[in-house]
Amino acid sequence: MTTALRQTSDAAAWTGPAPVASIEQYLGRNVHLLPQTNQLRALHTVVRDREASRRDFVFHAGRIIRLLTEAALDLLPFEPYDVRTPVGSTYRGLRFADGLLAVPIVRAGESMESELRAVIPGIRIGKILIQRDKTTKRPHLYYQALPDDIADRHVLLLDPMLATGGTAVAAIELLLELGVPEENIVFVNFITVPEGITAVCERFPDVRIVTSAIEERLNENAYMVPGIGDFGDRYFGTDR
After folding, report:
1. CATH topology classification for 2-236
2. Among residues 8, 10, 69, 132, which one is catalytic?
3. CB count, 10 Å around CB of 168?
4. Is 230 an annotated catalytic residue?
5. Cα 114 vs. chain centroid, distance in angstroms?
6. CA-to-CA distance for 122 and 107, rounded, in angstroms?
7. CB-based burial of residue 94 (10 Å sphere; 0-12 exposed, 13-18 middle, 19+ buried)?
8. Which residues form the Phosphoribosyltransferase domain (predicted)?
9. Does 95 qualify as catalytic in the annotation?
């Protein structure tokens, strides 16, 4: 386990919204957007409602996170695994390959752990703590707890918000420094914007992103529009 305090190299201070670049080149290749069904839209309607209770927010967000988890797991490697059925036949099946690791970015990313554990109870989980300066928006790495063999693992990086991209870039840079290949990283994300997608995909073309919604843009305060508010505060009940 390692503790660190440093400013990441990503780093430009937020200077306000820029013209939104096209992300068509990334969709379906780098970015895997959940099918925009009526059910998903109904779930998003609840979690985006500023009057939603915390109980409703957590419940409906959890349902979306489960969909994201299932989609992300489908991008990970499988290996052949045969089983005998109750009638004595052989089913030529599959199972997850060894070496899966989830890495939530504290604190908001921890909201995604329970749904992942419900699907893969024994999955190993590391931690990264990165926080943005409220004035400059620069990300700082404060803490990491990751296994020594992380370079040999496939990593699910968990963070519900991808806005300017600073935190995600910092986290991915850390994983790369520790030897994780880009193609072994799947970033599981609840909600994002074109600015965040561009920041990550231009820098890390082999990292894949799974998300449930792509917002219109960032406003002058680097908030997503129409947005969802501060996901971590709303999920853990520390919003005002």
Report:
1. Rossmann fold (3.40.50)
2. 132
3. 29
4. yes
5. 14
6. 21
7. exposed
8. 35-238
9. no
Check whether the bond before 226 is cis (ω within 30° of 0): yes
Ramachandran bin of 196, using left for φ above 0, alpha for ψ from -120 to 50, beta for the remaining angles = alpha
Give the start-to-end residue ranges of the domains of the chain. Answer: 2-236
Q: Which two tokens mark 120?
A: 């893969």
Read off the pLDDT of each residue in 199-228 and give the average, rounded to a whole number.
94
- Between 142 and 7, whose confidence is greater? 142
Contact of 32 with 174, CB cutoff 8 Å: no
- Tell me which of 63, 152, 203, 230 is the catalytic residue: 230
Quick: pLDDT tens for 156-167.
999 999 999 999
Rounded CA-CA distance 231/48 in Å is: 10
Amino acid at 148: D
pLDDT of residue 156: 97
Catalytic residue status for 233: yes
For residues 167 and 111, what is the distance between their CA atoms, to the nearest angstrom?
A: 17
Residue from 136, 152, 203, 239 carrying the catalytic annotation: 136
Structure tokens at 117: 């554990």
> Is 49 an active-site residue?
no
- Bridge partners, residue 90, by sequence: 84
Q: How far apart are CA 154 and CA 115, in angstroms?
A: 18
Helix (H, G, I), strand (E, B) or coil at 153: coil
State the Cα angle at 160 between 171 and 213, rounded to 5°: 120
Q: Are 65 and 112 in contact (CB under 8 A)?
A: yes
